[in-house]
Amino acid sequence: DMSLPAPTVRTTCPYCGVGCGVTATVKPGTIPIIAGDARHAASGGRLCVKGAALGETLDLDGRLLYPHIREEGAMRRAGWDEALERVAGGFARIIEEYGPDAVALYVSGQLLTEDYYVANKFMKGYVGSANIDTNSRLCMSSSVAGHKRAFGEDLVPGCYEDFELADLVVLVGSNTAWCHPTLFQRILKAKEARPGLRIVAIDPRRTATCELADLHLPIKPGTDVWLFNGLLTYLARHGHADAAFVQAQTEGLEGALATADTDCSDPVQVARICRVDPGKLLAFYEAFAASDKVVSAYSQGVNQSSSGTDKVNAIINCHLLTGRIGRPGMGPFSLTGQPNAMGGREVGGLANMLAAHMDLDNPAQRELVRSFWDAPRIADKPGLKAVDLFRAVEEGKVKAVWIMATNPLVSLPDAEKVRRALDKCELVVVSDIVAATDTNDYADVLLPALGWGEKDGTVTNSERRISRQRAFLPAPGEARADWRALCEVARRMGFTGFGYEDAHAIFDEHARLSGWRNDAHNRRVFDISGLAGMHRKDYDALEPVQWPVAPGSSEGTQRLFADCRFAHANGKARFIATAPRAPVHAVDEDFPLALNTGRLRDQWHTMTRTGKSPRLANHAPEPTIDLHPHDALLCGVREGELARVTSRWGAMVARVAHGGGIARGSVFVPIHWSGQTASDARVGALVNPVVDPVSGEPEFKHTPVRVEPF
Ligand code: SF4
């Protein structure tokens, strides 16, 4: 189905959730020329260094080009038929013997929406289990849960333009300058034009973002709920509540305020708990109170926490109290990490969601989805979330797992446990574009997938904008789209309903489902049925559009809640009482430092793509253990020398650095290095496998560790 590509193709960057538009020009014999797409509404032609270097990362070195299967302990090349038979036969046998919950899919924010849609339909409608989760669980599932609690559906109210229109941009747990660079450039440009725009950064580290902010609050890791509960009581006490809005459009304020008042009514006390200067804290509270147009954007520092969902709601509470939502220049804003974290959420790629934002625990919606799919069954309870899923693999409850476009042996917490789990698992199927990964070593079947520039479909960015990823390179070797592999396995398992001709047919079904019986009784905000019924050529030419897209129109929606109607049955938004609690594992004498993990400016995930570009590698050629010079002295380690970081779960070795603005008591280690890189520094092996009780998102930002000379 690969029609010949035009010389210049408009597509979307595969890295972060900003979702910048990219043009790729293919000239025979040279690497594709990558440039920013000035016509893309999310980015207006901007690209960051990672996006700009995409052309250098497209060679086929190290690519997985053919299916492989394990035979007598060793991998050998196989044909697609043989490999697919092995997958379908294995899944069918295990389901027959142990039931549908003995199999699982673990997918990724790197998948396109169409791949995700088919994976979800396969598991929830045909296998009959909700055991499909995604590495988005590790990224923004706390935001999903927070949105659902506050708004009744997983909804991001605003858009990127709001950052430019705001008078105050609050960046919480987000190194936006490095992790969402072109959005940060937009904020800085707006600030240049209108110096009254102020930026407050709330982050335990003094990151590049904090350097450029007007005010940096270096809070003690894990204390965000105290800080925002304190803000809520401050706003209430000083007369900044929008009483009419609160009265008419919300519920639950009394409970939320009572909870906040318990510990957080005194800013001096809050400053002490958060370990920030009381004057600076008050300056932030006053700035928030005084600015009608406030955007509070947050990322993994908020999400990746055992109280991540409460952190999200503590932030949203402040916007609900002041009625600052649904209007230009204001609102809470979740910055997603991956290019298609949102697309996965829309089709139900998480174990606790169904499809098109419908709920697994709602019998009417279950039946609605089942009948739309004409599926033989439908999962009737939430499946296992990422960390629990691999725990169940280790316990032998899940006996077959199909991993797509992600490397859990590097990225999950307590990664050594994942290794033991995969070692024991009866059938491990891995779909990837890379031949050698830590996870692939444990595969029984390896399926070659299409990479960026080869695959074709849609992604959704952080501002709800659906954009096309278009192919401009031929499929290498025997690589195939993930949705095709899924459909082939489904067909071999005797499932009907997987006869899609192309990505367009899948998107069309997804769009129709989103609007199907979306009436007063079943009211859902996520509805893109205005995009259903497109011709193939219109899908190919689809311009970036923000959902919802109303039936009968192809215009998108820039902001939600302009009508102040939320998705809970009574149309009201909910305040959530967020009782602050410390990270699950406290530092102690044996493990006196708190490990924080995250991204570097020029790398992406496990470097399978960005690692190919020498100029990107130059920024940080090797992993580092970043800590405060005083702590280094106490630990007996010196800058530039090797040291070992140890937690109760594992250990790793890297060079000591003092570059990252780390406060005393904290350590920062980047997430990108794996067993395949020159230095094996899998920080996931150290991370505590603690999760948020609501969202299941792991606590990547707080693991007690010690640092010693190596
Ligand atoms: Fe790609 Fe994000 Fe950079 Fe844009 S900001 S070019 S989406 S990595």
From TrEMBL:
Q: Please list the cofactors this protein needs.
A: [4Fe-4S] cluster; Mo-bis(molybdopterin guanine dinucleotide)
Describe the location of the 4Fe-4S Mo/W bis-MGD-type domain by residue ranges: 6-62
Ordered alphabetically, the record's keywords are:
4Fe-4S, Iron, Iron-sulfur, Metal-binding, Molybdenum, Nitrate assimilation, Oxidoreductase
Q: Which domain of life is it from?
A: Bacteria
| Similarity comment | Belongs to the prokaryotic molybdopterin-containing oxidoreductase family. NasA/NapA/NarB subfamily.
Q: State what protein this is by name.
A: Molybdopterin-dependent oxidoreductase
Source organism per UniProt: Massilia suwonensis
